[in-house]
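cache lookup: miss for this entity combination. No prior model stored, computing from scratch. Input as submitted by user K.M.:
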Amino acid sequence: MTDPQRVAVVGATGYAGFELARLLLRHPQIEKPTFFLRDTSAHVKCLAELFPQLRGMGDAPCRPFTVQAVAASGARVVFLATPHEVSLELAPQVLDAGLRVVDLSGAFRFREPDTFSAWYKLPAPARELLEQAVYGLPELYAEALPSARLVANPGCYPTSVILGLRPLVDAGWLARERGIVCDCKSGASGAGKEPRRELHFVEVDENFRAYNLFTHRHTPEITDHLGLGLAEIIFTTHLLPVARGILSTLYVWLERPRKSSEVETLFRDFYAGRPMVRLWPAGRLPELQHVAHTNFCDIGFVLDPSGERLVVVSCLDNLGKGAAGQAVQNLNRMLGIEEAAALL
Amino acid sequence: MTDPQRVAVVGATGYAGFELARLLLRHPQIEKPTFFLRDTSAHVKCLAELFPQLRGMGDAPCRPFTVQAVAASGARVVFLATPHEVSLELAPQVLDAGLRVVDLSGAFRFREPDTFSAWYKLPAPARELLEQAVYGLPELYAEALPSARLVANPGCYPTSVILGLRPLVDAGWLARERGIVCDCKSGASGAGKEPRRELHFVEVDENFRAYNLFTHRHTPEITDHLGLGLAEIIFTTHLLPVARGILSTLYVWLERPRKSSEVETLFRDFYAGRPMVRLWPAGRLPELQHVAHTNFCDIGFVLDPSGERLVVVSCLDNLGKGAAGQAVQNLNRMLGIEEAAALL
Amino acid sequence: MTDPQRVAVVGATGYAGFELARLLLRHPQIEKPTFFLRDTSAHVKCLAELFPQLRGMGDAPCRPFTVQAVAASGARVVFLATPHEVSLELAPQVLDAGLRVVDLSGAFRFREPDTFSAWYKLPAPARELLEQAVYGLPELYAEALPSARLVANPGCYPTSVILGLRPLVDAGWLARERGIVCDCKSGASGAGKEPRRELHFVEVDENFRAYNLFTHRHTPEITDHLGLGLAEIIFTTHLLPVARGILSTLYVWLERPRKSSEVETLFRDFYAGRPMVRLWPAGRLPELQHVAHTNFCDIGFVLDPSGERLVVVSCLDNLGKGAAGQAVQNLNRMLGIEEAAALL
Amino acid sequence: MTDPQRVAVVGATGYAGFELARLLLRHPQIEKPTFFLRDTSAHVKCLAELFPQLRGMGDAPCRPFTVQAVAASGARVVFLATPHEVSLELAPQVLDAGLRVVDLSGAFRFREPDTFSAWYKLPAPARELLEQAVYGLPELYAEALPSARLVANPGCYPTSVILGLRPLVDAGWLARERGIVCDCKSGASGAGKEPRRELHFVEVDENFRAYNLFTHRHTPEITDHLGLGLAEIIFTTHLLPVARGILSTLYVWLERPRKSSEVETLFRDFYAGRPMVRLWPAGRLPELQHVAHTNFCDIGFVLDPSGERLVVVSCLDNLGKGAAGQAVQNLNRMLGIEEAAALL
């Protein structure tokens, strides 16, 4: 019989994979994570060979990936830290083997198969899979997680934007015809580990730039889970000269004037009992450093004197709450473990 | 008889003052800048004692400031690199001595005296001074500079925002009732040289934060020179973990759909013959590194497919085009020298 | 009766204090740390008011410091995260109240009282205190810690240098008459939190400089615990543009040629069973990132082909193994808890 | 007849090439630099297509490289900003066409052909070429430059180390049997522009590491031009998380005690009349920021109280005095132009 505390990770070779390994190795309720690599040409026996930072932190055995090997490892939950197209292929196989999946790619995050294929230029996932997939934002979908078989771990930018806006959207407070501007800034680890000219240290250091305007693939993920149309939002992304962290400055117009205390109450009620969202009092704003190397999403706001123009600032660590930390938070919910286990 | 190529600088002890000194020392048409310090307790004889970077770059003699000493130095143009309240006091005295002034503070940038006093919590400047003051943005007010006696050198953020939006405002293309969002990010040298907790290396490094929302003193300077009301614009500022540079992401809605080529033409026509504004082709955006250590303001834009939502990105070096470089550009215009002298 | 798992921290207002709080709050065997502040003018009730990063990480109550209040808190071990002169005054009082002390200052690190007073320009500590003080480097003095009443937590540079050289010194392998060169580089958090001109972001960013040559107060701490004379070592320190971390490049000449495998064996034997020292195979060197945000000291070396010139590289996180992490490691040893508890 | 102020640059596609272009474009005595690219597949017409920073700075035409085309351009001096193996091939061809060459690669820096082939794993250059090549360190070989046909522009590390030590070596002050330790640190632009895993922003940011111990190719260049044996020097290199700059900490033992004033005088006399070396008074040390974006080499020192242990700190911008700036300084000397032209 399989042990419920055993997990496996497929493809932990990037930055989010490293962070996931680090969290799982220190997780008090997880007995023994096994790491499966698809490219076995390197004959890596232990994840610390790829990430020297992991030496001395516990046994992190690596094995060549096959569905059978994963099933035989005793894992009940399998993390796919794989590219979109690989997750698209592997998730059904792993599910068919009776295992639960937390997928860190974009493959299963959308309601409609076509949305994925249109924005990612890849084949559409099966509709049945999307129908059973739970979007792994525990603050919104906590009750679906304990029984979820396939969890689509959210994108880093969407986590930040959705958590910052959802209370306002749900309350119907927004003058939606005015539009919403989401000016988002991310550290360079969000762009992945592959060497590229524009990620060379000299190109990022002392630099700052906007990228992918009106074309970023996280756009439909945001509108999907906010229930907005694409025309209602302008979402821009910028590259910060830091390794980790996302800060989103969110501009909304309210349909009628509000007081700061009302906004504060709205957010407090919405996130009551959510240990991973930290709210700031009206007029005080979170900073990237407050959330770096944590799983928190910090949210603050400033309302202008008219009471109609509201700026919400939402920030998180793109490898923590924006990726690996959130995956562990989802795991905790799936296994009925305390939500913040291994995350503080 | 005074020599037209002689200039003086009062108060060159901060980052902008250093940059101004560096530019003047290499200016081929400026014979001999003299630096006047107000706090003479340090008995500084040469600016290189304050800025070792200036050693070997030329003679930069320092003297205690008095209006008489400045007048006796043979300078015809005097730069005030002094705090707002000091400029407020000194500018009239220096003007009365028959010298021309380029003031780098905020004291003389507004049309109405009350605007300054309300936002800076300082006494209002004399209305007569404001009436003769030229706002030193050479791309807009080039023809007023040759005869200007008092030039108010613009703020760093306003330079970036005004240059990015003015062609659109002047053309009447904006759906102004939709509002304008100016999400601006600056390096830390813009906050000055005084040691403060929030400017400690450890507090800025690997960090990013918004500050002074709805209260930044550059707000009325922007609206004043764009001819907008305060309610038409949301202007936010953020601190980047870089030393130099401002990048402003400007969100506007157009009153009717436009093509990218139309926007491109609008900007090209507006900035024709302006050597310090560099325009990017539609869809390509400037970066902070392109303008760091230069006097350029680089402007690019992306128009969304609907043709109605336009994002303009404007960037510059806050010590260059945002302060000292612009001051030298103003000097060049005032003296009839080639506009880009010492600035390439 | 007091609870053995209760601890107190005095003066947790700096960077090391923050890190100590963070580690104690997640320590599975520590029930409830209480934080005592000496300057009570701020009426801080909770440490998260000083460090927003700590919000949501557990209850961190703050109280005004008195020896009586600390004793009444039920703490058995008290961390002094206080300036040297304050530790000098408080440690005897806290010890007299029957509590054990881990002092993070430099006050009790030397064998001779005069060494401290000469290098720190402060009164000498009592000789009896120095005689009972244990230098809190668990890799060297593990057996003394369980019964220690006063632990002098080492300096950040000395931890790095001593761990890198002690195996060679103890083995008598060094040609000591040739001298030892310790070229050490530290991140800016090692210089403390107080705003100072030379720690302003703009002054540290994109910069690098040596400081305190031949005068650094960590010099006698290094020679004391290596058993060397001051003339046998050149110790230099440099400021890196990073927040955290120390990397020491250590140059020694061997008294006779050795093979890399011999050096490797020497270090492996010396650090056998020490979970917080990670050794690298010959020719591979650790990097700052490998140890940032950890309590590890990583050590590697390269031997030149002659076998007589050896370069050892030792690195650690100055707030982790160089300060707060080491303090917790000492605590664990003092309480008989697993040495790495809360540190992985 | 060719115009003496015309120059050409071959291969300006890397960081040093960009800096060279920037300097030549603002050089008051250079009329019109032409840029020749070897890989013509990109059909680049203007260097600003590769380096947007150059837009608006002057005409920088690009043409496909052939020796004939270079000769026809009217250039008298040709800069080779090409890889070692390419310079090895092109330099003789360009010389044969009657043009003078400043080569920025390592191909012609050594006295012995074998030294190059052994350390660079490439064919040896012709001995006749090495015999006529001038090592382009103007502070040492100024008189050879006006008539030089082939100038080997020095490496960045060697420039810093040689300038810091040569006065001491020439004076015979060193206890050479004690050895010399050169602990050098460089910014990431020194490693070139090609994307590589270890130069990814995330791998360099907040990191620091030593590399190439006992194997760095600049080692024999240093010993060659200091007249030392390889066994007399330990030269180590480290990667700093900055874009530009090298700081070398140089440890020497003197053969008899000296006073600081003697050391100061030695250096002052040695570098009298050298505008690009800036000396610091005894006990004060230069920093990376002092030299970034300049062509200066700044040198300071601290002598320990015994008068026998001396630490010299030498720093420069690796793209300035360490590469492109020095190349222009050599050009100035070759053409009889003021040495600092375009470099202040």
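stored under new cache key. Residues 259 and 307 of chain C are 6 Å apart (CA to CA).
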